[in-house]
Amino acid sequence: MSQDLYETLGIPRDADGDTIKKAYRKLARQLHPDVNPDPETQERFKDVSRAYEVLSDPEKRRMYDLGGDPFNGAGGGFAGAGAGFSFTDIMDAFFGGAAGGAAGGGRGPRPRVRRGQDALIRLEVDLAEAAFGTTRELKVDTAVLCTLCQGSGAAPGSSPTTCETCHGRGETVHLQRSFLGEIRTMRPCAACRGFGTIIPEPCRECSGDGRVRSRRSLNVKIPAGVDAGTRVQLSGQGEVGPGGGPAGDLYVEIHVAEHPVFARHGADLHCQVTVPMTAAALGTSLDLPLLEADLVEEGAESDSEVETSVALDIRPGTQSGHEQVIRGLGVPALRGSGRGDIVVRVVVETPTRLDPRQEELLKELAAIRHEESPEGTVRTAPPKSVFGRFRDAFNPR
Questions:
Q1: SS3 20
Q2: How far apart are CA 50 and CA 341, in angstroms?
């Protein structure tokens, strides 16, 4: 081609590499055959690509500036055997990437040292432990640093060497012929797996990974107020990374065991107390055990340090289903101060079997109260809400 290559790209002869690349990007977006299929435009695109092939390569550019043939007389056309160019150049022109010119500039070798993965374990605790906090010892099976090679992956006395296939770049060039010429693509080196180095003598303990599996113990502090599903983060206690890289984090997910007395609803504790019919009618008082009683049973607290029960007064005439609230004796807040409440539901137990004397006394009481043949009280059911009517429409009886 007789036209000057600098004029083809529209750049001065002292243009630097960035200027050459920007000029090629601009022209390639305008002239690429997929954008403009006109035959003359395609020829110009070939000229632009050939100019970029020469000027982006320092050695070919030097030869061209001295008046030589940068293609060694091999024909020099865009579709000729000597007109190879990198596929990343076209992608760079259209998408603005920084893959570099035909002279190289790929992603480079990937590091052997990388951050480890996070780990998740599940821990079941009692309701009292979740409410008031505790410290538990855990056995964790994770990847730890190999003490023999200190994470390098190489046997003692040896070290990684530069890969002879990719010469440390971590990538190899693959050529493919197409209507555009020889397209060069970069792929991770198969010999070194993209690392750029090879470990000739891997460590016998970790087989070159820089880490080994091991079981270790650590103490986990469970804060007061945690609930089922809460995750406690332990920074740097997860998997050690490949090549002895920094460890990930360990997450401890809390599962709360079912309690024989209390059911937790947020910060409140719900329980049920069953009293005889006579106690509900006359009133009574009983001791309600608190969640703190579990701590005393486990030896975490002494009897003198904490109250284990509270007096619950059942007022005369208490009806079955009545709820009483004991303030401030529920679960401590996870964030902030204060505690929830204890909600006690009273269930009145009606005797199912009476001896003759008990039956006689109840009949006397009914006569005194004029309740020998009670009619009961019939009340109209409350009107259904909009949502209730909507539900019944889709659930006919």
A1: helix
A2: 81
Q: Are residues 267 and 254 in the same domain?
A: no
Does 200 fall in a domain? no
| Domain shared by 252 and 131, yes or no | yes
Residue 193 identity (one-letter amino acid)? R
Cα torsion at 312, 316, 317, 320 (round to 10°)?
A: 20
Same domain for 231 and 317, yes or no, is: no
Give the domain range for residue 11: 5-95
206 is in an annotated binding site: yes
- Provide the CATH number for the domain around residue 287: 2.60.260.20
> How many CA atoms does the CB half-sphere of 173 hold within 13 Å?
15
Say if residues 274 and 306 touch (Cβ distance below 8 Å): no
Instruction: Flag whether the pTM goes above 0.70.
Output: no
The rounded distance, in Å, linking the Cα atoms of 37 and 343 is 79
Contact call for residues 183 and 85 (beta carbons, < 8 A): yes
The amino acid occupying position 103 is: A
Is 111 inside any structural domain?
no
Q: Euclidean distance between the first and final Cα of the chain, in Å?
A: 90
Q: Would you give per-residue pLDDT tens digits along the chain (397 residues)? A: 447 888 888 899 888 888 998 888 888 888 877 667 777 877 888 888 888 888 888 888 887 777 666 765 443 333 333 344 444 455 554 444 444 433 344 467 888 899 999 999 999 999 999 999 999 999 999 899 999 999 999 999 999 999 998 888 888 887 777 666 667 778 889 899 899 999 999 999 999 999 999 999 999 999 999 999 999 999 999 999 999 899 999 999 999 999 999 999 999 999 999 999 999 999 999 999 999 988 887 665 555 567 889 999 999 999 999 999 999 999 999 887 899 999 999 999 999 899 999 989 998 998 998 888 877 666 665 665 555 554 555 455 4
Interstrand relation of 250-256 and 231-234 (parallel, antiparallel or unpaired): antiparallel
Any binding-site annotation on 203?
A: yes
Question: d(Cα 29, Cα 48) in Å, to the nearest integer?
Answer: 11
What single letter denotes the amino acid at residue 214? S
Domain boundary among 240, 258, 276: 258
Is 271 assigned a ligand-binding role in the annotation? Answer: no
The encoded tokens of residue 137 equal: 């010892």
Which residues pair with residue 314 across a beta bridge?
Answer: 284
> Which residue has 């024909």 as its token pair?
75
